[in-house]
């Protein structure tokens, strides 16, 4: 039946009245299956990789698999509240975390939410957890040191601002101890620190936070926690979240130090996710490629050129080896991405040489450019002297009679090794390290009995600080040993050594 003209005009008038009403479109999908922190969602054809999806009960998930029939989503919350048939909506946002100065001194989870019992913070800024690393043009070569406060590292395996230095070794060899000492040593150095704990016990993290608070290091440190009790997705995103927080400060021109403890557990979390998402398994049962997993994280560490603010992000990833095997899949990958490694050995640790750093297997690919000139001047021959000592030591086990030069190398090496031993949570300022290593360079330590080396070092530094403070001030100011300063310090060391030996009745 044909419409009459007056009916048509009435319909048009009605449509005009409703013209200003907005039409809202929503991308809605439905949960097909859910379990083990994974959900398969149907009906979201336009979803992006890494996008945040909203589930009922204010639970969010991150898209990881894009397939023809459905998308694979990892849940960032309690999956028991979600059931099949639940409605899922797109947020059209990539997973983000809060960033900014409000995070200083706080303990947060992988989503940047506070878990330290303190009042919630309000941040205006958020950043995506994933981002392309700074390019070649925006970077500057590493030229400033990050002082760890550990003599053995600062002298032979220096770490520079913007570097990625791997800490690798078996369990219980002091890997975390090195990272924590480095954070404590940044006090007053204008370096912000981030510590990312992946797959650790909550009690261990609580002890660590208490230690940082006691030493006053929490004022400039953020702790990101994805503990062993949390789901694999949260352990997977934790290091990326920590990195995004650090990048915000780096782009403001600040220096940032970030510790990933540890990436072995991160790779395991990724493997768990991948297997649950039914991705095809890869080499050594690590689906996808762990190289890409860690390279896109560690490549974000950089020293920016002055035109881009001149900030830096220094990364200290930690890897746990099995029976010292650094040729295994994950260690090999991370070694190839980083700018050097600090290798810790179980036998050194057990024999009381702590930090248990193997000077032969450890290397910094940045080298002298991450040292102050004074440190270069006193540490140049250290590595060689220790290598000679270890060689002669193994050689001397077979022979009974040693010539004088061999005996001298062994005696000096023994004292040098003892001098490099350092208690935990007692990092040493660089000017103190220089004095200590100068005493070794001038062979003054050779006169002191091995069991008195530690006592000698402490009293020597205290003596020079008390009696010759002008030398210390000059060293701090110049950061190099001029001829005059070298002579002044050498004479002060010789005078003290003579007095010290007199007190021991050895002179």
In words, what does this structure look like?
- The protein has 507 residues and is of the alpha/beta class.
- It has 16 helices and 17 strands.
- It has helices at 5-17, 151-156, 175-185, 202-214, 232-251, 263-276, 290-298, 329-337, 346-350, 373-379, 382-396, 404-419, 430-441, 453-467, 469-478, 483-504, and strands spanning 28-35, 38-42, 51-55, 59-66, 71-75, 87-94, 96-99, 107-109, 125-128, 166-169, 191-198, 221-226, 255-261, 302-303, 312-320, 340-344, 363-364.
- The strands form 3 sheets. Strands 8, 10, 11, 12, 13, 14, 15, 16 and 17 form a 9-stranded mixed sheet that branches. A 6-stranded antiparallel β-barrel has the order 1-2-5-4-3-6.
- Helix 7 packs parallel to helix 8, helix 10 runs parallel beside helix 13 (430-441) and helix 11 crosses helix 12 (404-419).
- The longest helix is centred in the C-terminal third of the chain and has 22 residues, at 483-504.
- The radius of gyration is 29 Å and the shape is elongated.
- The mean pLDDT is 91.
Characterize this entry briefly.
By secondary structure, this protein is α/β, with parallel strands linked by helices.
Q: Strand portion, in percent?
A: 15-25%
Radius of gyration: 29 Å
C-alpha end-to-end distance: 125 Å
Q: Would you report the number of β strands? A: 17
Q: Count every helix, treating DSSP H or I runs of 4 or more residues as helices.
A: 16
Global geometry: elongated
**Structural class assignment:** alpha/beta
Main sheet makeup: 9 strands, mixed
- The pLDDT mean sits at 91
């Amino acid at each position: 039946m044909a419409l009459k003209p007056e009916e048509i005009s009435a319909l048009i008038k009605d449509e005009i009245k409703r013209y200003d009403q907005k039409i809202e479109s929503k991308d809605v999908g439905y949960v097909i299956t859910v379990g083990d922190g994974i959900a398969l969602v149907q009906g979201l054809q336009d979803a992006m990789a890494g996008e945040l999806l909203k589930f009922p009960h204010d639970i969010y998930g991150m898209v990881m698999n894009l397939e023809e029939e459905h998308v694979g989503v990892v849940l960032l919350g309690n999956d028991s509240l979600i059931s099949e048939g639940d409605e899922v909506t797109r947020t059209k946002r990539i997973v983000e975390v809060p960033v900014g100065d409000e995070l200083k001194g706080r303990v947060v989870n992988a989503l940047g939410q506070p878990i330290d019992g303190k009042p919630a913070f309000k941040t205006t800024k958020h950043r995506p957890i994933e981002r392309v690393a700074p390019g070649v043009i925006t970077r500057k070569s590493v030229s400033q040191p990050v002082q760890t406060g550990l003599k053995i590292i600062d002298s032979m395996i220096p770490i520079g601002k913007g570097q990625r230095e791997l800490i690798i070794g078996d369990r219980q060899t002091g890997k975390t101890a090195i990272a924590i000492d480095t954070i404590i040593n940044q006090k007053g150095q204008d370096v912000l620190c981030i510590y990312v704990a992946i797959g650790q016990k909550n009690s261990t993290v609580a002890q660590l936070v208490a230690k940082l608070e006691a030493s006053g290091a929490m004022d400039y440190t953020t702790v990101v926690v994805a503990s062993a009790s949390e789901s694999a997705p949260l352990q997977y995103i934790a290091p990326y979240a920590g990195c995004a927080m650090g990048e915000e400060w780096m782009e403001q021109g600040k220096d940032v130090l970030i510790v990933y403890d540890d990436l072995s557990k991160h790779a395991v979390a990724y493997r768990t996710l991948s297997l649950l998402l039914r991705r095809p398994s890869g080499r050594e049962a690590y689906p996808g490629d762990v190289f890409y997993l860690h390279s896109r994280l560690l490549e974000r560490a950089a020293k920016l050129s002055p035109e881009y603010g001149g900030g830096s992000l220094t990364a200290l990833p930690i890897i746990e080896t099995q029976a010292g095997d650094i040729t295994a899949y994950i260690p090999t990958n991370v070694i190839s991405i980083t700018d050097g490694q600090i290798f810790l050995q179980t036998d050194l640790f057990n024999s009381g040489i702590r930090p248990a750093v193997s000077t032969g297997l450890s290397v910094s690919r940045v080298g002298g450019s991450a040292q102050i000139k004074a440190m270069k001047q006193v540490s140049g021959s250290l590595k060689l002297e220790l290598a000679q000592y270890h060689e002669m030591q193994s050689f001397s086990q077979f022979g009974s009679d040693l010539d004088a030069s061999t005996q001298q190398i062994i005696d000096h090496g023994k004292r040098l090794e003892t001098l490099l031993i350092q208690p935990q949570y007692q990092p040493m300022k660089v000017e103190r390290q220089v004095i200590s290593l100068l005493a070794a360079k001038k062979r003054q330590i050779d006169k002191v009995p091995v069991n008195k080396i530690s006592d000698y070092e402490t009293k020597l530094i205290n003596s020079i600080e008390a009696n010759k403070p002008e030398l210390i001030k000059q060293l701090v100011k110049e950061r190099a040993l001029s001829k005059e300063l070298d002579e002044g310090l050498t004479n002060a060391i010789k005078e003290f050594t003579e007095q010290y030996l007199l007190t021991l009745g050895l002179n």
